[in-house]
Design brief:
Layout lengths: L7 H7 L16 H9 L5 E3 L5 E3 L8 H17 L13 E3 L7 E3 L2 H8 L1
Antiparallel strand pairs: 1-2, 3-4
Length: 117
């Protein structure tokens, strides 16, 4: 961390500064466990100021069915983590896009039904 300290003003606002909460900074005795979790497919998602959830579900070389399987697993995990206190629509709209591409609208009606049950 001492090496990154001079860069904190640049990396911090961009969300690139390593920290313990996001799992990008681990203690030496926890390193093996962190690598195992990463290889098992643990994903990190962020919510921005507009309540948009941003998550990486695949790579360019993934097939369409692999991407949809990853998205399905992520959406089901969101439904399972939904707090009981939230009423009304849980999913408003959903899009999938590449880093530099145009967004494609997703049909989230199945996940909305799951969230209401």
């Amino acid at each position: 961390m001492q090496v990154l300290k001079p860069l904190a003003r640049i990396l911090g606002p961009k969300g690139l500064m390593p920290n313990v909460k996001s799992g990008t900074l681990v203690k030496p005795d926890e390193l093996i466990e962190a690598v195992k979790l990463s290889k098992m497919g643990q994903i990190e998602f962020r919510v921005n100021e507009h309540s948009d959830i941003m998550v990486k579900i695949g790579l360019r070389e993934f097939a369409e069915d692999q991407l949809m399987t990853n998205f399905d697993a992520f959406a089901r995990a969101l439904v399972n983590k939904k707090p009981e206190s939230i009423k009304g629509k849980y999913f408003v709209r959903g899009y999938i896009k590449t880093t530099m591409g145009h967004p494609i609208k997703l049909d989230l009606s199945d996940y909305q039904r799951m969230a209401q049950e």
